[in-house]
Each structure stands twice: as C-alpha cells, then as structure tokens.
Amino acid sequence: MMRAFTRSFLVFATILIGAELVTRFCLVKTMEGRFDYGYHPTAGFYETQDGQVELQRSGGRRFFPQTFAKQRPNGKYRVMVIGDSVARGKSVAQSYTGQLEKELRAQGVQAECFNLALPGFGSRRKDLVLQQVMNYQPDLVILHVGATNEYEDEREWRRRTDFNSPHPKNWLMRSLVLRQFYEMKTEKLYWQWLPLAVRNQNGGSGDADAELRASADEATQKAWQTQVENVTAQGVQRLQAAGIRTVLVTQATRRKTPQGTYTLDDNAVDAWTTRLLGPTVAKLPMKTVFTPQQATTLYTDSSHVRPEGHTLIAQALAHLLKTQGWLK
C-alpha cells in the first residue's frame, strides 16, 4: 500500500514539476506579471526595439492584440479607448472603437483608434491602464465609466497581496500551476463538471456568491461608489494637466419594468461625472444614445450591447467630436 502510494505520489509530483517548468519557461511571456492581476503598471504593453508597442493578452490583461507606434505618426489622430467588457465588445472591429475609426475616416480624419478595454476591470485597474496610455501621445482618450466592476478590482487586489506575501500559507501558491487551479475553483470555472456532492459541500462559498453578498450590502456599495468617483476624477485631472482631450462614456444599464418593458438607468453616474466636464472634457451618456425600445433589442443583458449598439455609440461619438471642434 505504502509502495503504491509512493509511486503515485512520485508520478503526481513529476507531472506537477513538468507542468511548472513548461509554464515558467515556455509560456514566460504570457505569464509575465500574470499574478499581479492587472495591477502591474505595464502588463500587456510590450515596447519593441523598433519603436512599436504591442498589446498582448498577458499579465492579467486580456487585451485584443494590436500594434501601434510609440510616437504618434504625423497627421494621425490617435484615439485610445479604456473601459471594461462593455466597451471591449466582441472584437476591435465590432466595438465602438473600431466603428469610430471607420466613422472618422469617412469624414476625412486620419484616425487610428485602439481598444484597451478589459473585461472585469473597475476604476483602479482602468486608471493604471490610463496612466500607461498617456505615454503614447493620444489626441483623445475615451474613458468608459461605470460602477459594476469594483468587486473584481477588490478581489484581484486581495489576491495580488496575499499571493505575494511571505506567509507560509501562501508558499504553495508560488506554483503557477497550483495557483491557476486555485483560481478556477474560486471562480467556479469548472463548477459544472464537479460531482453534485462536492458542489453542495462548497455551496455559497464561491466567487459569484461573495459578489452577490457584497452587492447587497449598502455600506459596501456606497464605498465602491465613492471610490469610482474619486479615481475617475483623479484620472481626468491627469489628462487635463497633460492637455489630452477626454470623452467620458457613461454606462447605462437595462432594467425591466413591472409592465414588461425596459428602461435605461445610469445609476447616478451621469450626475456626478457632470462635475468633471470642462474645455477638454466632454461626456456621452449611453442613455442618450439608445431609446428604451432599442434597449430591448440591442442589449444582450443588463449592461452589454450588440455590435449594432456599438455602431450607434460610435456615430454619437463622431458627432460629439465634430460639434466640440476636436477633430483634426
């Protein structure tokens, strides 16, 4: 029995060590900064020797792969879009980033628009992306503002802090492979494949359950709201100081009425962002882009919109930039 156990243990250990070596040496680029969970300032940004910047899916940031010159080319109108999964869309071409580039070029503007929106990113991690983007000479930054991802920001900050601490309880988490499995369990990514008994035993302890409890707590919601307001204001102030024009796209969520129809709610984001407006800061509320009737067909859930919805946002942005006199 002991011999069989030892043999099994050695096989398991060999597989684990092999997987760890493969991860560390063969996937080093995609794993770089991976366990900073999006809090590493330059994760996903790779500056090449020929002056190019490559956006890659690494370091906890799932950028759409894109490449641009570090120094903005003469005559180009450079637009950087920062946001969460709503702004990200299904692809660069289908997102309002790609659609805006198309709209502006149709107007004769030599635009280059880049989609730096990341799924699950809240105000703090979006602000880190914004700070890096300012190094690349954007003419315009479009910041998609919402208040639905603060739980994710807080969770990933805790993970980063815990897994990088020297406490013995985290020693096993030095393994990239074990840490990946830990994340999958916590977020219930393989939940549907677990036996029912295991799921029942761990019910209510997963990530989705924790988020639901936090979202129902009034004090937590108030703290998150304050955090979004403060971090967004600081980012806008940085852009103003650098003379970079900014458009705030404020999120609107779809809600079902008792009559079975839909209405759009900005969750007070539109109100407090008004205080941030100025000569170089404009705003596009999503609730002004869609009618309640369009919300019925263009929203895929409470927050995300179909490619046709992205097209309408892009058209509204192009019109806003023209009326502001911000187009070259």
Structure overview:
With 328 residues, this protein is of the alpha/beta class. Among the domains are: 2-31; 77-151 and 218-324, SGNH hydrolase (Rossmann fold, 3-Layer(aba) Sandwich). It has 13 helices and ten strands. It has helices at 2-26, 28-31, 85-88, 96-106, 123-133, 150-163, 176-186, 196-201, 207-215, 218-241, 269-273, 292-298, 307-324; strands spanning 45-47, 52-58, 61-69, 77-82, 111-115, 140-145, 245-250, 253-256, 262-265, 281-285. It has a five-stranded parallel beta sheet, with helices on both faces. A three-stranded antiparallel beta sheet has the order 1-2-3. The chain has a two-stranded antiparallel ribbon with strand order 8-9. The relative contact order is 0.11. Mean pLDDT is 84; it is low at 186-205.
Compact overview of the structure:
By secondary structure, the protein is α/β, with parallel strands linked by helices. It has helices at 2-26, 28-31, 85-88, 96-106, 123-133, 150-163, 176-186, 196-201, 207-215, 218-241, 269-273, 292-298, 307-324, and strands at residues 45-47, 52-58, 61-69, 77-82, 111-115, 140-145, 245-250, 253-256, 262-265, 281-285.
The biggest sheet, with number of strands, parallel, antiparallel or mixed sense and barrel status, is: 5 strands, parallel
Level-1 CATH class name of one domain? Alpha Beta
**Corresponding CATH architecture of one domain:** 3-Layer(aba) Sandwich
Q: Count of helical segments?
A: 13
End-to-end span in angstroms? Answer: 77 Å
What is the β-strand count? 10
Residue windows where pLDDT falls under 50 for at least 5 positions: 186-205
* Mean pLDDT rating: 84
CATH-level-4 superfamily name of one domain: SGNH hydrolase
**Helix content percent band:** 40-55%
Cα Rg = 22 Å
Organism: Prosthecobacter dejongeii
GO molecular function, one term: hydrolase activity, acting on ester bonds
Protein name: SGNH hydrolase-type esterase domain-containing protein
